[in-house]
Design a protein that fits this description.
The chain contains 2 helices and 4 strands, in the order E-E-H-H-E-E. The chain has 106 residues and is an alpha+beta fold. Strand 1 and strand 2 form a beta hairpin. Helix 1 packs antiparallel against helix 2.
Length: 106
């Protein structure tokens, strides 16, 4: 059982990523300004690390999709690669590519 906790948000560019929780089990503790400032700075650093990793992962996925598109043999192959790659890179539940030709979309 925790006797107290200090909770700081993990925020990057105004977007809430989560929270950093410092919990104490040794009896109630009053957190001073230094504790709060330190926790907030750690929260900023952790949030930045999380965002940096997310961006790096996204960049790797986009490079993989680009390489797969370059290797696609047909327009249909490229459309399948693109749809699957966008779904994976964005975390979407599904994706599709609609091609429009002289006869209209198909």
């Amino acid at each position: 059982v925790f006797s107290d906790a200090l909770v700081v948000p993990l925020v990057v560019a105004g977007r809430l990523l989560g929270a950093l929780v410092f919990a104490n089990t040794g009896g109630p503790r009053v957190h001073d300004d230094t504790d709060v400032d330190t926790a907030e700075e750690l929260g900023r650093r952790v949030a930045l690390m999380i965002e940096t990793e997310r961006l790096a992962t996204r960049e790797r996925r986009l490079h993989e999709v680009t390489a797969a598109l370059a290797a696609a043999g047909t327009v249909d192959d490229a459309a399948r690669v693109l749809a699957a790659g966008v779904v994976e890179a964005t975390g979407a539940a599904a994706g599709s590519v609609t091609l429009a030709g002289p006869e209209g979309p198909h």
